[in-house]
Structure formats: C-alpha cells, structure tokens
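I am still getting used to backbone structure tokens and would like to learn alongside you. Label the sequence line and the structure token line clearly, so we can match residues to local backbone shapes. Would you write everything just below, so we can both look at the same thing?
***
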Amino acid sequence: MSVYDLMMKRRSVRNFADRKIPEKIVRRLLDAAANAPSGGNIQPLSIITVERAGARKDLAKVVGGQPWVKNAPLSMIFCIDFRRIKRWASLSGVKYRGEKALLPFLIAYADLMCSAQNVVILAESLGLGSVYIGTILDVIDQARKYFSMPRYVVPMMVLSIGYPQSVPKGITKLSRDVVAHSERYRELTDNQIKKAFEEKYGSFEENLKRHFRKIYVEAVEAGKQEKPEWADPEWIKKQMKKLNVSNNAQFLFKFRYPSEVMIEMNQALARSFRKAGFDIL
C-alpha cells in the first residue's frame, strides 16, 4: 500500500484486540517519534510510555473513563519538556527562559504533534491502530502527579495504540476543495459551508444511532466496551432535548464541546501551566 493510500484510509481506532505490541515495534515507534521535525531541531518534548495494566487503567480513569485507553496495550503521553533544555543550557553557561514566552511553547506543541503523527503513520503501516486522547489537558495536575513529571514538564496529548479489533466505517472528512486555498484565502459562501458540513456529517434527521457513527463515534465505540453513562444513546437523547439540539453544529457546540465550558477552561489551564512552571498565559 502506498503512503498516500495508507493515510487516506487511516481512522481513529478505539476497539483494540487483547494483544501485546512486541518491544521491537515499540522501539521503532519511539524512533519515529524522536526523528520528527522540530523547530530549530531543539526537540523540547518527552514521551512517557504506559503499558502496565494498572497504569493503563489509572490513565483511562484520569482522562475521563475512556475504555480504549485501558484496553490499548500501549499509550504514549506526549509532553512539552523544557526541563531538559533548561538543565542543558545551565550546564553550558547560558539561561533558557522559554517557559516565560508563548512562541517557544507554541513551537514546542507543534513539534510534539509532528512527533505524535509520525507514530500514528508508522503504527498504521505496521498493522496497528491509534487514537488521540486530548482530555489529558483537562487533568494536567493529576497526570503530572501520577506520572512524576517535574517542573517545566507538562502533558499535552495521549496516543493510545494497539491492534484493531475493528475500524470505524463511514467517518468522512471535509474535502480537499473545502480546506485548501490557492495563493490567497478564499471565503466560502453560506451555501458552500452548509453543503460541506452536510456532506461530512449527513442529515441530522436520519436514524440517530446510525448518525452517531459520523458525529459521535466515541459513544458508539464505548457502548461496545463498558457502556458508560455518557455513551448511552437514551441519556444522550435526553441531554439533546434539554439543550434543544436540532442540527449538527448545535450537537457539537451545545452538547459535546459547549463554548461556555471551553471558555471557562481557560483559567484552569492557565493555573495548571503555571504550576508546571510555564508563565505564558
């Protein structure tokens, strides 16, 4: 399979087989992570691997009760790591103060995601599946304490990896014509925007359970494994009715990612970053 075909067929996997990943493959995944692009080739990141059953269970609980984190034989916690850089700079007779500047932090986050995506693509080529877990950002303090992260080290993303038991079907993406712009930004018309997202998510009036496979696949996959309340279709329907949700955008920004909650998280994130030594917000 060509790299292009592999990337076009890749989808997030949340249903993993009970099968350990050989150590040789884990090392190769970490090699790919360490060889990702990096601004200035400074590589301000560290990766904590989580393979022990107890730690996987604890990590799953910390990030919001996502069963695939517990069931995946391997999770990698990608961290911005300015501690190693600061120590190296100090040993070399110079100060590094990137933890007080937003630009180095943003570049470090970009480096981190390049590293993680290297792992995703190599894993896919080796017959593995993976899924990003962004909710580590909701629990930075707990994660830092549990995994003994020192000052100037902060977790930003989890990648859970394993052999797929199943791969979701029917997950569509916005087309190239919608996301790509030639030479200058091109403003889409209202009708073009509506059409783009309807093609992506489908009609909201169709069978709701089937519709979740496009717009809330996490609930579908969780329902196959441990059936937490947040994945119960009847509970979801009640919440939707309470919030008066009647279309895809309302489902996303009233129910799944409510804007008010996202804004309220700003202060909590800023506090967690400061506790870790990052004075950037």
